[in-house]
TrEMBL record:
Coiled coil: none annotated. This is Serine protease PepD. GO terms for molecular function: peptidase activity. Keywords: Hydrolase, Membrane, Protease, Transmembrane, Transmembrane helix. Residues 329-401 form the PDZ domain. Pfam families: PDZ_2, Trypsin_2. The lineage of its organism: Bacteria, Bacillati, Actinomycetota, Actinomycetes, Micromonosporales. The chain crosses the membrane at residues 70-94. It comes from the Bacteria. GO terms for biological process: proteolysis. Residues 1-21 are annotated as: Disordered.
């Protein structure tokens, strides 16, 4: 009996001879073989013995090759491919004009119009787009202000105090950055309105509204160049109407306004710019600000600004253009100022003037003009100058303890 570990090979095999039987070919007949063993011996056939050699089995104890280099190579390759793909995609997007578009993989994104072009005409942005081309920055010697174009051939309305002392050294700039020289047509210091002519044609003129049709609470926009910040627009509401203002430098011209009060932010440099309603129409000329500062150079917006009503400004500008000077509306009486009496007390009355013709006398106290309460003489002067010569206004006055009424036809000053 043998287990084959020291088996010796037989004589060499010669082609054509019968295939010799293996040494264990008689194992099945081995009388000592355990018939119940799970192992058994299979005698291969001649065909099987001459078939292909069995595949080699890997040695489980052999050391394995590391996968780390392969993984690193794959990672680097993926990163390079992604970077190259992203770069090419961006280049192609820019060349096709889609670099700034947004979208998804559900369809191509169409180019969109600029956002400003989509604003409704009645929106603030729509109003600004309509009005701003007509607003100018007025530059005079050592000063800067604002104005607005009222005719296509170059007439511009501004404040008298903007052009005061400017002489002929004057120019304007438009919202598109273009500039043009300008010359003074005429000015009216007492109303604070001036007209200049720009050496440029084909301009866009503003649309003028009706300042008598506005109400407290109406939204407004103020245009101009506050603190030399050109093309500035601020928003607010009409805070009050017929707010009487006395303004002017000491020793200079005293100006009176029955003004539109607004809380739109207005600062130095806004003077002469337009106050515009929700329809894009000019209803006032920004002129005065109220400040807690003691000096004009330190004055700033505190939500109290005043504009000359456009009906008054339009009339005065028309006089300047047509006649070279404005007509001043008067009532034909001299008033007492600085008294504690409620109302405007008449010091003297011109018998041939409007007040005298209506029956008023010296000593009478006017308490209402056109249904507007008159607190003092300043109120009366400012309210009278708001109206055009020839206007008929109702007046309430007090003579002694008796209240009376009259209708006064206002006239232009003879000067």
């Amino acid at each position: 009996m043998t287990d084959g570990w020291n088996a010796r090979s037989g004589p060499p095999y010669t082609a054509g001879q019968p295939v010799p039987s293996p040494w264990w070919s008689d194992a099945l007949a081995d009388p000592w073989r355990d018939p119940y063993t799970p192992a058994h011996v299979v005698v291969p056939s001649a065909q099987e013995s001459t078939g292909p050699a069995p595949e080699a089995v890997a040695d489980p104890d052999a050391p394995r090759r590391s996968l780390t280099p392969i993984l690193l190579i794959c990672l680097v390759t993926a990163l390079l491919a992604g970077g190259l793909g992203g770069t090419l995609g961006f280049v192609f997007a820019v060349r096709s004009g889609l670099a700034n578009s947004t979208g998804n993989n559900l369809g191509a994104t169409q180019p969109q119009a600029p956002a400003a072009a989509n604003r409704a005409p009645e929106s603030n942005a729509g109003i600004v787009d309509k009005v701003l081309p007509s607003v100018v920055t007025v530059r005079v010697t050592g000063a800067i202000g604002s104005g607005f174009v009222v005719s296509t051939d170059g007439y511009v309305v501004t404040n008298d105090h903007v052009v005061e002392g400017g002489g002929d050294a004057m120019s304007v700039s438009f919202s598109d950055g273009s500039t043009a020289p300008a010359k003074l047509v005429g000015r009216d210091p007492e109303s604070d309105i001036a007209v200049i002519k720009v050496a440029k044609s084909g301009l866009t003129a503003v649309s003028l509204g009706d300042s008598d049709a506005i109400a407290v609470g109406d939204p407004v926009l103020a245009f101009g160049s506050p603190l030399a910040l050109v093309n500035t627009v601020t928003a607010g509401i009409v805070s009050a109407l017929d707010r009487t203002i006395q303004a002017g430098d000491p020793g200079g011209t005293t100006r009176y306004y029955a003004a539109i009060q607004t809380d739109a932010a207005v600062n130095q440099g806004n003077s002469g710019g337009p106050l515009v309603n929700a329809a894009g129409q000019v209803v006032g000329v920004n002129s005065v600000i109220r400040s807690v500062s003691g000096t004009e150079t330190e004055a700033g917006n505190i939500g109290l600004a005043f504009a000359i009503p456009i009906n008054q400004a339009k009339r005065i500008a028309g006089d300047i253009i047509d006649h070279g000077k404005a007509r001043r509306t008067v009532i034909g009486a001299e008033v007492v100022t600085g008294t504690s009496t409620t109302g405007a007390k008449l010091r003297t009355v011109d018998a041939a003037g409007p007040a005298g013709a209506a029956g008023l006398k010296a000593g009478d106290v006017i308490t209402k003009l056109d249904n507007h309460v008159v607190e003092d003489g300043i109120d009366l002067i400012a309210l009278v100058r708001k109206f055009a010569p020839g206007a008929v206004v109702p007046v309430e006055y007090r003579r002694g303890t008796k209240a009376q009424n009259a209708s006064v036809t206002l006239v232009a000053d003879s000067n």
